[in-house]
Structure formats: structure tokens, C-alpha cells
Amino acid sequence: MTIAGTDSGGGAGVAADLRTMALAGVHGCVAVTAVTVQNTLGVTGVHTIPPETVAAQIRVVAQDIGLNAVKTGMLATGAIIDAIVDVAAEVGIGRDRPIPLVVDPVCASMHGDRLLAVEAMTALRERLIPIATVVTPNLDEVVLITGIEVVDDETQRAAAVALHEMGAQWAIVKGGHLRSSPRSADILYDGTDFLRLDYERIDTPHDHGAGDTLASAMTSALAHGMSVPDAARFAKGWVSESIRWSYPLGAGHGPVNPLWRVANY
Ligand SMILES: Nc1ncnc2c1ncn2[C@@H]1O[C@H](COP(=O)(O)OP(=O)(O)O)[C@@H](O)[C@H]1O
Ligand SMILES: Cc1ncc(COP(=O)(O)OP(=O)(O)O)c(N)n1
Question: Which 8-state DSSP code applies to residue 264?
């Protein structure tokens, strides 16, 4: 299941998650948190869904279809986070529970449009991250959550340690925004070992939805029963090729393209 917002441009959020989940061989269910008015140039409107409706979407799917793994994306408000954390305890989602939880702590779009209210940062830090099986921030989110500015490998590792100490079972600090590096390397940490997930940096402005695609590929792999390190390796390869095959849609940042798996270009 993806618990996330919609993107009218179809590049990020629920649309990106469902594309990847389908191609990765799992049936994706949806709990919508917000409707965004969005294209490749940015977000111009947000309409949030009532927290009890978000919780109800999760509950009815858990009770009927069942859940093998869950991912969160744009959550919009602290009240929505509180509702998700409460229903997660009720149906068994989260670390040390039967259903693994991947938390992509989406705070803003790549254009700087706020997707999580400032008041929600405390609930994110103190309630959601502590129940995450894996948390997957980009570097802007790392600063907002931990106060650590990542500039190199050492600070990237320090951020992963801080997120683990906040309660996440595993932390992946994504290096996509570390443009000074010729590689695009993410660091995975479980409290003991660091795993570096390294890939060439692909030179394209069309990377909209990359973070969602990484997290939903990882969620799909966890739903198939893979371990977290194997799921992270799978997701890294998946998102890298999706960026390679991204396309120039609209006047801004076009979407990444998980259809590389099936399309004959
Ligand atoms: N230009 C790029 N080339 C290769 N991989 C990239 C590139 N940009 C981002 N990635 C990878 O895509 C994933 C999403 O990263 P990032 O862009 O930092 O997240 P977000 O979309 O949340 O801002 C990470 O695995 C990151 O390393
Ligand atoms: C509805 C919605 N959810 C998430 C995002 C951010 O997506 P992300 O994959 O982090 O990609 P970029 O914003 O970096 O393209 C979004 N924009 N909209």
C-alpha cells in the first residue's frame, strides 16, 4: 500500500508509486492523504483529506485484502501523521510488527513547495520515524529532520546514525542532491553496518518522482519477502534505470520512467 498524495501531472505521489508497484509485480493499494494541483513546474494547490478518512482507507484494506508492506509519502499535516500512526498500531504496520513500513519523509517538492506543514515536523520526528522499518530522506529532508547538513560521505553517515537514533530500524540517506559528487550514492545503516549503494550520476533534469520510485520499489521488494539490504539494492537499480529512461514532459522537470522494464524503445 502507498499512503501518499496525488500529483495531477502524474510524475510523483500515488501515480509514481502504483506504476512501480505494478511493474515490480505487486498489487498496489492506496490511501490518499492529499490532492495536489501540480505539473512539472511546481505545486499551486493542496487539498488535504480528513485524517479519519486516511485512517479508514488503511483499515478497510488491511481488514479485507491484507497488507504485505506499506509506504508513506506526502502526509501534509500532523493530524494525518497521528491518524496513520494510530491505525498502524491497530493493524500491525511498522518496525517490530508483521507489516514493514517504508517512510519517505516528503517535506517539499523539488521546487520548494511545502508538502508537509511545519507544525507536522514534531509528529514526523517523534511518532512516525520511530515506527519506520526504513526511513528514506533526501538531503533537504535530512536538514529539516536532524539539523545535519550533508556535504560529503562522513556527514551522510552521521545523518544516517542520527535517523537510526531517532528510532528508525534502518535509515537510507539519499545522495541524489549531493551534486558535487560524480556518483549518486545512498547510505543504508542499521545501527551497526553502513552499506553504500553506489550508481553513476545520470545527467538529466528529468528526475521528478525519483524519491517516490525508490521508496515504492523498496516497498514492493519487501512485500515479496526480501531483506532490507536486498530490497535497497533492488530499489537503487530500479530508480537509476528509471532516471536513465526519464522523459522531457512539460516545461519543467519531467518524470522518471519505470516502464524501462517493459517498453521497447
Ligand atoms: N542524477 C541522478 N543519477 C542517478 N541517480 C540519481 C540521480 N538523482 C537522484 N538519484 C537517485 O534517485 C534516488 C532518489 O534520490 P533523490 O533525488 O535524492 O530523492 P528525492 O526525489 O526524494 O529528492 C536516490 O537513490 C538517488 O541516489
Ligand atoms: C504528491 C507528491 N508527492 C511527493 C512529491 C515529491 O516527490 P519526489 O519523488 O520526492 O520527487 P520530487 O519532488 O523531488 O520530484 C510530490 N512532488 N508530489
Answer: -
Give the H/E segment covering residue 54.
helix 51-64
Encode pLDDT of 245-254 as tens digits: 999 999 999 9
CA distances from 245 to 150, 199, 214, 252, 260 (A): 28, 15, 15, 16, 6
As a whole number of angstroms, the distance between CA 185 and CA 203 comes to 15
What pLDDT, in 10s, does the model give residues 57-102?
A: 999 999 999 999 999 999 999 999 999 999 999 999 999 999 999 9
> Which pTM value belongs to this model?
0.98
Closest-CA residue, ligand 2 atom 2, reads 13
Q: Tell me which of 174, 233, 238 to substitute to probe ligand 1's pocket, judged by most ligand atoms within 8 Å of the beta carbon.
A: 174
Query: What's the complex ipTM?
Result: 0.97
Residue 205, classed as helix, strand or coil, is coil
Instruction: Give the cell for residue 108.
Output: 517539499
Residues at CB less than 6 angstroms from ligand 1? 138, 174-177, 184, 186, 199, 201-202, 207, 210-211, 214, 236, 239-240, 243
Torsion angle of the four alpha carbons 135, 140, 146, 150, in this order, in degrees rounded to the nearest 10: 100
In ligand 2, the atom with minimum distance to the C-alpha of 211 is 9
